[in-house]
Amino acid sequence: MTRTRLPLATMAVAAFACLAVVAAACSGGSASSDSASEGPRATVSGGGEPAGSDDVAATDAPAATVAPVVSEGQIVEDVAEDEDIDEEAGPIPGGTLRFALEADVDGLNPTTSSLSAPGRMMALAVFDTLTALDVDGNVVPYLAESVEPVDGDLTRWRVVVREGITFHDGAPLTAQAVQANFDAQLASPIVGLAQRPFYPAEGPSTVVDERTIEFSMLEPNAVFPAWLSTQLGMVASPDWLAAAAADPTLNQEPVGTGPFVFESRSLDSVTRLVRHGGWWGGDVHLDALEFRPIPDASTRADLFFSGNVEGLHTTDPATVGDLRDEDSAQNIVDETGQEQFVQLNTSSPPFDDVRARRALALATPLRDYRDLIGLGIARDADQMFVPGSDFYNPDVVQQGDDPAAAAALSAQYCADVPDGCSDGRIDVEFQFPAAGVVGARQADILDQGWSAAFNVNFDELAQDQHIVQTVLGQYQATLWRGFGSLEPATNRQTLMCRTIGEGISLNGTRFCSEERDDLILDAQAQPDKADRAANWQAVVQDMNDASTRIFLVHTIWDNAFSESVRGVCERTSPDGVPLRCVVNGVNWFDSVWLSD
C-alpha cells in the first residue's frame, strides 16, 4: 500500500513521554487503566481464582478478529494470513525481535530507577512480578503462589512465593529475597516515596519462613495485591541489589527471574537481552530482544514501515492512524489508560494562587488542541476516568477556551503580584519532553491560547531530565501523562498530601487536600468496586476544583508489530490464566515468536 502523512499543520504530533516516576505513580505497571476498574478482592490465591473485574469502557472500534484472548477496551487488528505458517505446529524458536521505544530511561533497577513505559517494557523482560493482571483486569498470582489478608481489617497481608524459582545469577527466590527488594524500595529516594508513607516505620514486613513474608500497612488496603503487579512487585536478585548499591553503574545490568537475561546496554542506542533457557515459566522462543529508543514518533514509525524494527509503541494519534492503515501491521490499540494533561506546581508562584491556575485553564485552547493533536483518534479528557467508567463523574468538565475570562483573572493576579507579571500578563515557564517536532507543535498550539493572559517561556527537555525536574518541583507548568492504573488507588502517590516531599515529590502538583486523602483511604479499604465509586467521583470533583491539572486527551497506545511477529497476546499465568496483552504501552515477550 502507499502510505501518506498529514501535513504538519494538521497532523497530531503528540509523542509525549510517559513520565511515571514509578509504575504505580503513572501506570500501575505497569500498571496503564483507571477506566471502570473494580480491582482485586481481598484474596489472590493459586489456581487463577478471580480476584476482581475490570469493566473497561467500550470503544467504537471494531471487535477483535484474531484468535488470542484480548482485554476489553483493547483492539487487536487482523493481518493478512500467511499460508506458509503452520500455527498449530507451535512456535518457531530463534530470531531477534527489534522494538522501537519512545525514549530511554536512567536505569533498569526497579527499586531505584524512574521507570516510564519504555523502562517498564525492558524491565519486565528481565524481572517477573509477584502478581499479574488477567484479561479482565483481575489480579492473579505470578511469582507469588498466593497473596492473602492475615486479618479482617486488611492491614496485614501474607505473600507466599512459588517454590523452585531461581534468579539469573543462580540465587533462589525466597521470602528473604522479596524482603531485600522491599527494603531497597523503602531506602530509595524516589521509589521509597511510593512505599514509606503507607507503612509503619517499625516492622513494615516480616519474613515468616523461607517462602512466606507478611506486610503490615498503616491503613486497611483491600487492593494491596494490585500493587504487586506494578514496578513495586518486580523482584530482583538480592545479590545484584547489594552490588548495585555499591556500584550504581550496575543499575544498567539487571538481574531478575524473567524470560530474558541482560547482555548489553548502550544508553540512547540499544539494550540487548537474550533468552533465558532455564526460565521457570516455560519455553522462551526468541533468541534475543533489542530495544531501540527513538523519541521522534515519525522516525519510529518509518523504521517500522521500512522493516528496520519488528515492533514499536506510540501514543501519537497521527502515527496510530498510519499504523491502522498499514495492512501488514498488527495493532494492539489500548484506550483504557492514562491521560495527558498540563500539570501545575502549586508550591511556588504563580500557581500557588488559584487565580493563576484557573486563568491558565481558561486560556487553554482545548478544542484546537484536541482537534489538531487528538485528530479524533485520542478521546477528549475532562478527568482521570473515561465515560462509561463507574468512577467517572459526569458533572466534571474541564474548563478552557475562554481567553476573556482568563485575561480578567490574570489582571486580578497581576494587580496583586506585579513582580510576577509583564505587560499585564502572568509570566510562566512551560516544560515539555523533547520529541523532535512533535513537542514544539504541542507547545505552539497551547501558546496560541495562553498568550491572551500569559507570557510563556518554553523549555524543552530530554525525558529523563524532565522527570527529574518535575519530581524535584523545579518547574511551573509541564506537559505530563499520568494515572492509568487498573485500580485507581494505585495512583494515590500522585494525589495525597503525605507524598509531598521538601525535595522529591511523587505528588507532582504538590497540592494537599486532606479531604481528598480521606476519600482515597476510605476507597482503598473497600473490597467492592461499587462501594468505591462514589469516593472516586468525589476525588475527581476535588481535583477539578483545585485546578491543578488541565486535562487534554485520553492517551491512546498502539503497540504495533510486523506480520512476522506471533504470540503477543498468548501469555498466561503459571496457573494457565490468560493475561492482559498490553498495559499503558507495555507488552511482554515471553510468549512471542517470529515466523521467519
Low-confidence stretches: 1-70
Structural class comes to alpha+beta
Record field, number of beta strands: 26
Report the major sheet.
Answer: 8 strands, mixed
Number of helices: 14
CATH architecture of the domain at 339-554: Roll
Estimated radius of gyration: 23 Å
CATH H-level homologous superfamily name of the domain at 339-554: Dipeptide-binding Protein, Domain 3
Mean pLDDT across all amino acids: 85
C-alpha termini separation: 22 Å
β content, as a range?
A: 15-25%
Please estimate the helix content. Answer: 10-25%
Shape: globular
Within the largest sheet, what's the order of strands? Answer: 3-15-22-14-4-13-12-11
Predict the CATH topology of the domain at 339-554: Dipeptide-binding Protein, domain 3
**CATH class descriptor name of the domain at 339-554:** Alpha Beta
Report on this structure:
The protein is of the alpha+beta class and 596 residues long. It has a domain at 339-554: Dipeptide-binding Protein, domain 3. The chain contains 14 helices and 26 strands. The strands form seven sheets. An eight-stranded mixed sheet has the order 3-15-22-14-4-13-12-11, sandwiched between helices. Strands 16, 17, 18, 19, 20 and 21 form a six-stranded mixed sheet that branches. It has a four-stranded antiparallel sheet with strand order 7-8-10-9, covered by helices on one side. Helix 8 (354-363) packs antiparallel against helix 10 (403-416) and helix 13 runs antiparallel to helix 14 (529-546). It starts with 22 loop residues before the first helix and ends with a strand.
